[in-house]
Amino acid sequence: MSAQRTRMRADGWRGVRLALAALLLVVAPLALALHPKDFQSPEEEARYQGLARELRCVMCQNQSLHDSPAGVADDMRYQVLALIREGRSDAEIKDWFQARYGDFILYRPEVTPVTWALWFGPILLLAIGAGMVVAVVRRQRVAAAALSPNDDRQER
User: Fold this and answer.
1) Quick one: pLDDT at residue 124?
2) pLDDT tens column, 35-84
3) Closest CA to 76 of 125, 43, 60
């Protein structure tokens, strides 16, 4: 009887193993869809990975092409690979994407009059905030100084 139970348990695990294998067969192509794996050389893969990290997904907007699971990002990744294989330089590939999607596509756009707000806007807002804090503190000091002589008179 115990041999029969052992065989039944083994048959039960066989079904679980088959289910896991089927699940892996379904999920594996989805993982491969994020990044093409048929690179022709390690240099090509390094360029591809670098460009995919420097270009922004137009759908997700706060994710790089490398990190984005969106379908449009998948198309853009294949375009990056195609442009690399055409023999274009990294700068030419960035220019190609920039011409189609604007400066927003680059995580680090060049400093030009058009992108000054992107580069200097945060610094300007920080300076304005610091100026407002200084102005409030000065007003409070003046108000405190104006009240202290009255407090001295009341104590006498």
Assistant:
1) 93
2) 556 888 899 999 999 999 999 998 887 889 988 888 888 999 999 999 99
3) 60
The answer to whether the beta carbons of residues 32 and 38 sit under 8 Å apart is no
Say how far residue 126 (Cα) sits from the centre of its chain.
23
Residues 6+ apart with CB under 8 A from 47: 84, 90
Residues 6+ apart with CB under 8 A from 94: 51, 54, 55, 106
Asked if 106 and 55 count as a contact pair (C-beta separation under 8 A), the reply is: yes
How many residues are given for the chain? 156
Question: How confident is the model over 108-140, as pLDDT tens digits?
Answer: 777 778 778 877 888 999 999 999 999 999 999
Q: Which phi and psi (to 5°) does residue 64 adopt?
A: -75, 165
Q: Are 75 and 62 in contact (CB under 8 A)?
A: no
